[in-house]
Design goal:
Layout (H helix, E strand, L loop, with lengths): L1 E4 L9 H8 L5 H9 L3 E3 L2 E2 L11 E4 L3 H7 L14 E4 L3 E6 L16 H11 L13 E2 L8 E7 L2 H13 L3 E10 L5 E5 L2 E4 L4 E4 L10 E9 L3 E8 L6 H8 L13 H11 L6 E8 L13 E3 L4 H9 L10
Parallel strand pairs: 8-15
Antiparallel strand pairs: 1-4, 2-3, 2-4, 5-6, 6-8, 7-8, 9-14, 9-15, 10-13, 11-12, 13-14, 15-16
């Protein structure tokens, strides 16, 4: 039997998620079998898997020493460099300016050189993260596509992670502003409301009806500049769907320049030849905290900006756009 006292940083999460992280090498079937057999108790009482842990709860897991040794494995940090463009850092969060070309999280092909792994290595070297004792792994609160640059918020502890992710779900407490270069001349300002459906067979997000399983999706934008061939736009999301910006602008026939999945391939080739640019022109430029609850209420009304990427800045300059004139 293993007995644990829940610390403040491990509270406010479901007990099954905690147990899954503690017995990090155990099959899910084994974890939920423990609950069915009533081999997990809180303060002397059997609880369901959705019980929310509280600070100082006494958790008992009734397993053998052999099973504990087999399933409670030390987390391994995969070494990588810690070159990070840190825009802001405190005891609770990190805001990183992610360059284009790097994943936020690893996929089946890439586990080492990811933004998440760089952050973990950075905090490990600072002795702010200990894989031997910390069940919460410093994590991104949201994602950006590999070829999108800009700001990503990382949480250093569970409480901060819960606050940030809830604010992002509401799309009120935190405002994220993107800058994109798109095809053609868009309206001065606009609102794109088109439900999005993730089609795994096509490996794309497509517009469908809610009845067909699509999720309501809303994108707001303002035109900053246009020469009729291209438009520079500022974008805010009222929902946060996969590839939302890319799919929505393709839907209104103004796809992002350089977008290989949703874009205008002929125009992309022209743009590549002229500017040597082969990526979607999309930057997560600003993050503003509006209403924020404790323990992150000190962030209220604070705004953070990414340095505009040099390559994109040069392209806009060549197009005759002075970002200073547009307060960007």
């Amino acid at each position: 039997m293993k007995e644990l006292v829940i610390r403040k940083l491990d509270a406010n999460q479901r007990v099954d998620k905690f147990v899954r992280k503690y017995l990090n090498d155990a099959p899910l079937s084994y974890i939920y079998k423990l609950f069915r057999k009533k081999d997990i108790k809180i303060n002397g009482h059997w609880v369901k898997q959705n019980y929310i842990l509280k600070e100082n709860d006494n958790l008992k897991i009734y397993i053998s020493d052999r099973e504990l040794e087999e399933f409670n494995k030390e987390k391994i940090i995969i070494p990588t460099d810690t070159n990070l463009d840190i825009v802001y850092e405190d005891n609770n969060i990190l805001i990183i300016n992610k360059p284009s070309g790097i994943l936020v999280h690893g996929d089946k092909d890439e586990k080492r050189i990811t933004l998440s792994n760089k952050v973990i290595n950075y905090l490990y070297k600072k002795k702010e993260y200990n894989p031997s004792s910390d069940l919460f792994i410093p994590s991104p609160c949201h994602r950006l596509d590999r070829n999108t640059s800009g700001l990503v918020i990382f949480a250093k502890n569970r409480e901060s992670f819960n606050v940030i992710t809830n604010l992002l779900k509401e799309h009120l407490g935190i405002t994220k502003t993107y800058i994109a270069l798109v095809k053609g001349e868009v309206d001065i300002d606009g609102k794109i409301e088109a439900p999005l459906y993730k089609d795994d067979k096509l490996n794309k997000v497509v517009v469908k009806s809610v009845k067909e399983g699509a999720k309501p999706s809303t994108t707001l934008y303002k035109r900053i500049w246009t020469n009729k061939k291209y438009s520079l736009v500022s974008i805010n999301l009222l929902t946060g769907r996969t590839h939302q910006i890319r799919a929505h602008f393709a839907y209104i026939e103004h796809p992002l320049i350089g977008d290989r999945k949703y874009g205008d391939f002929k125009l992309n080739n022209e743009f590549k030849k002229e500017f040597n640019y082969d990526s979607q022109f999309l930057i997560a430029l600003k993050i503003k905290f509006n209403e924020v609850i404790p323990p992150l209420d000190y962030l209220k009304n604070k705004e953070f900006n990414a340095n505009f990427p040099k390559k994109e800045y040069k392209i806009l300059s060549n197009l005759g756009i002075n970002l200073i004139d547009y307060n960007i």
